[in-house]
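In practice, a research group might receive sequence data for several interacting partners and want a quick structural hypothesis before committing to experiments. The following worked case mirrors that situation: the sequences arrive first, and a predicted assembly follows.
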Amino acid sequence: TDQKGLKLVELDEDGVDRAFRDDILAGLSQPQKATPARWLYDDAGSQLFEDITQIPEYYPTRAETEILRDRGDDFARHISPGSAVVEFGSGSSVKTPLLLQAIAPAAYVPLDISGDFLRASAAELSAKFPGLPVHPVEADFNRLVELPAEVRDLPKLGFFSGSTIGNMIAHTAVDLLRSMRGTLGEGAQLLIGMDLVKDRETLIAAYDDAGGVTAEFNRNLARRINRELDGTIPVDKLRHEARWNDLHARIEMHLVAEEAIEFSVCGKAFTMEEGETIHTENSHKFGRRSGNMLLLAGGWTPEERWTDAEGRYSVVLARA
Ligand code: AVJ
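A structural hypothesis for the assembly, expressed as tokens:
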């Protein structure tokens, strides 16, 4: 439910999530089949992503955690004292405490569209920081969000970790950054994780690990379609592929048909030729200039920037 108590997930008579069905049917009907990345994250997908953060090849989580752990003094120096930390997405049990510890905020406001994740992480945080007021808000942060009255007069620090901004193409990322600016207000600060462009081998390995965890994460989408949308996709004939798209500076995940296949979803027939793909996720990588440019386009002026010791990942502090 959203703030007004309205159901955010609309189910039809058969209990099918309409937004999921509409997105998948439209995405599979395009010349280049492509599906929005958000549908990768059902319960199984979210668990598989947690597993990904633990694999040796997937450096972003470790690199970002290193920055948050080592740069606490810098954060305390550059972030307004007594800020309300507004986290976009339910907090990670590792990263969020590192930030809160460093800056001793006046309040913590986690925003998430999923009430279950939100309540779980808010409870965990309250237990770790007994004196800290926690005000969870169940909302879609792609829109303007009305913050709780208790934090209205405090300085705001937005926190958007995990390089999730990299999942969006530029115009969507700019829309989101502008919404965040609207939600937090002029003069607010934003601490945002942005993964960096680096050699192809490192990038491909991070998204195509030897243990096959990322492949399972990707194929899980096809399984979910079969389960929830009455699909007949032959999952075992789809191979995971991570591609570097140099023009767009992004890693793309694809599901590649290993032979010509036919299947149906919600009674609608689809075919794939051998080698044809479903494009399931983008993960954009940034340079110093391209990262700054994106933030500026979204209404945020970069103030400080930190990278891990190996220079793989950046955390940027910007001001509205
Ligand atoms: C959660 C979107 C940040 O793009 O690195 C990891 C998702 N996909 N491996 C990323 C992901 C494949 C991840 N984000």
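Before designing any experiment, note the following. The chain has a mean pLDDT of 94. Residues 49, 52, 60, 162-164, 166-167, 207, 214, 217, 281, 283 surround N,N,N-trimethyl-histidine (CB under 6 Å).
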